[in-house]
Amino acid sequence: MNASPLEPIRPGGMTRRQFIKSVIAAGAVTSAGLLFTGPAGAGHKTSPGAVERLITLTVNGQQRRVDVLPQETLAQTLRGKLGLTGLKVGCDRAECGACTVLVDNEPLYACSTLTHSVRGKNILTVEGLARADGGLHPLQQGVLDEQGFQCGYCAPGFLMATLGYLTANPNPTRQELAHGVSGNLCRCQDYDKILTALMRGAEYMRRG
Amino acid sequence: MAIIRDGMQPFDLYQPTSVEDALTLADRLGADAWMLAGGLDSLERFKDRLKRPKAVIDLGRVEELRGVRREGEDLVIGSMTTLTEVNRDPEIRARFGLLAEAAGEVASPQIRNQGTLGGNISQDTRCWYYRGGWQCYRAGGGTCYAGESTQGQNREHALFGVEGCAAVSPSDTAPALIALEARLVIKSAKGAREVAVEDYFVGPDTDITRMNVLGTGEVLTEIRLPATWAGVTFYFEKVRDRPVWDFPLVNIAAAMQLSGDRIDRARFVLGAVAARPWRLPQVEAAVAGRARNAAVDAAARLAADGAVPLPQNGYKVALVRNLVKRAILGKTTS
Ligand SMILES: Cc1cc2nc3c(=O)[nH]c(=O)nc-3n(C[C@H](O)[C@H](O)[C@H](O)COP(=O)(O)OP(=O)(O)OC[C@H]3O[C@@H](n4cnc5c(N)ncnc54)[C@H](O)[C@@H]3O)c2cc1C
Ligand code: SF4
Ligand code: FES
Ligand code: FES
Question: What average pLDDT does this structure show over B201-209?
Fold first, then answer.
């Protein structure tokens, strides 16, 4: 499934084989000149099978097949194509943290990450926190018990940032956790209660 | 100029897995290609339509560009090593704590997890006229909105070396690397060159449209730290409006070799006061061979030599003097 490193992933990037397959699948015949040549100016030969827009992402433990544009952000893919609308887009400029997800356990801003760059990595969104039986994750339980958020828009980002931080430091002081989640803004300015709730969640996690 | 929020313009994306492939691609694509590291500077410009590359070469899968290793006395840091990795690396912390500290003061945790050391020193300036798409000198236009207009908003702008453009170098790690006398390895399909990190940065007197010497088809591969300043006394401080996210208003990185209380030799470098990180050779000369307490007043007087404040950034002169004092005395409160 991996593209050859010397070949691009093109905006219109289907290979001839994929295109034919998709036409057959759709049972339709269309004029397809544009799809074969790609965008103006691109102009290299496409070697068979090399160019792949259709990729597999590992999201919340599941393999998801998805058609991803070269210029697509992870926030666009997760929200727009995989229906994972838990993460929010507040600024789209790496300045608020609402889009925070874990990529191989590290908190990243999904709005400022190209989806193709996380191919092959483990992506965890807030939807992946709850247990299979629907029971809440201890961090979520902490938030619920302490009523940590007001409108909650920033909550998915805070939860993911906290989870990532706790992997490295499971027993933080309040001050340390504040620093750990300093890449997340809350428009309701509810930081004190958020920290109390996240500290409670961290405590629940330690108890297991 | 308006912020367009419907996503980026299309480009061809390449994901090489070796430096060699990246260089082949860079050579083949020439000026059409944009190197992508962590993307935190780049994607914003693509979203705002200020840069519209036809092709993007994502260096994220080139494993050999990541990580820290020892080579003789040198510590070699791959350009794609993230700022979090630089901040946590045991060897960097032990011998070059100045760099670890500077990397830890950048932006926010998420940005440090993704932003790279190579990208951090190669990022473009943050002057908002320029970033907002105004056709100023740096963008190839005919004026400087920050410095030449009576309405110019220049609180964050430069004190030194303003020749046409008053934008500043925004990097927190660059002053630290200059204090440590780091060297950079730059490769292209034609070969490799090594430059002192101090010579990497370009001021408006040399070229008003660029911030560094990277040319078309070139990839920054390594940051090399020689043993010259390993384990000496360091000082880093960053002054900013908010403790997270904000770029420095002024930062200082200092390395001092001490014999007891006497300064044998020292390097002082300021960030965010000029288009390049700004070294203070006159201060370095004035403190050499003197006791810290005895050196401090002369150093502070000399520190802002040559500063030409703009209407709104005069406060930076006082900051520069005080930061130099604190760097010499080694304390964060006076
Ligand atoms: C909201 C926000 C706040 C920030 N605050 C700070 C701060 O306080 N202090 C600070 O120092 N920085 C700050 N930054 C910058 C950030 O730390 C990133 O390090 C920086 O933007 C670029 O790193 P990157 O790896 O994401 O590079 P990219 O955005 O991918 O690249 C930046 C530039 O360098 C070039 N480049 C990168 N790597 C190479 C290479 N190996 N070879 C050739 N060219 C290369 C790219 O072509 C591009 O022109 C902030 C950024 C944001 C978005
Ligand atoms: S300071 Fe430089 S970047 Fe900013 S408006 Fe003036 S010329 Fe442009
Ligand atoms: S939406 Fe990503 S940081 Fe704000
Ligand atoms: S609770 Fe409303 S934004 Fe944080």
Answer: 98
